[in-house]
User: Which sequence fits this backbone?
C-alpha cells in the first residue's frame, strides 16, 4: 500500500492527506489516506477525494472485513466506462454477488459502487499496477474538474 501512496504523492498537484493523532482531524480518519488534486496544497473546498486508503470498518461498511489485522482497502472513483470494463456491470445496476473480503481483486466498492467507486483490499501482484493507473486517471479527472472551475492553473 505504501508503494501506491508514494505513487500518488508524485503526481503533479497531488495532496495526500494522512490524518494522525493530534493534527486536528477526527479519530475515525487516523491511519487512513485521502487523495486530492490540490495545486495549492490545501484541501479543496466542496470537493471529495478521488481516492482513499481505509484501514478499518466503518458503520455500514463492513463487507471488506478491514478490522482484521493487516487488511487495508484502496478506493478509487472511476468513470463509467472504466467501471463497466473492470466489473462487467453498470454502476447503478450492480447485482452480481461478490466476495468483498477477497484480496488483490478489483471490485465495486461495497457501499459506493453505485456512485462509480471501485476498490481493492490489499493490492498485490495482480492489481497494484492497475490501482496506480486508476489513481492517475482519477487524478487527471480531478485536475480537469479543477480547471473547469478555476481555469487551467499550474501545468
Assistant:
Amino acid at each position: 500500500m505504501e508503494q501506491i501512496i508514494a505513487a500518488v504523492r508524485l503526481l503533479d498537484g497531488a495532496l495526500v492527506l494522512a490524518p494522525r493523532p493530534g493534527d486536528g482531524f477526527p479519530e475515525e480518519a487516523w491511519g487512513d489516506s485521502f487523495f486530492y488534486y490540490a495545486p495549492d496544497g490545501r484541501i479543496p473546498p466542496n470537493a471529495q477525494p478521488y481516492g482513499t486508503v481505509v484501514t478499518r470498518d466503518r458503520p455500514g461498511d463492513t463487507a471488506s472485513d478491514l478490522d482484521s489485522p493487516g487488511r487495508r482497502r484502496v478506493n478509487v472513483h472511476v468513470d463509467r466506462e472504466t467501471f463497466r470494463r473492470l466489473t462487467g456491470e453498470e454502476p447503478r445496476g450492480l447485482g452480481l454477488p461478490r466476495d468483498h473480503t477477497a484480496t488483490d481483486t478489483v471490485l465495486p466498492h461495497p457501499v459506493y459502487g453505485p456512485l462509480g467507486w471501485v476498490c481493492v483490499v490489499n493490492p498485490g501482484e495482480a492489481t497494484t499496477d492497475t490501482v496506480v493507473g486508476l489513481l492517475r486517471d482519477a487524478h487527471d479527472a480531478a485536475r480537469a474538474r479543477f480547471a473547469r472551475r478555476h481555469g487551467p492553473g499550474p501545468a
In short: DSSP finds three helices and six strands in the chain. The two ends are 28 Å apart (CA to CA). Residues 128-150 form the longest helix (23 residues).
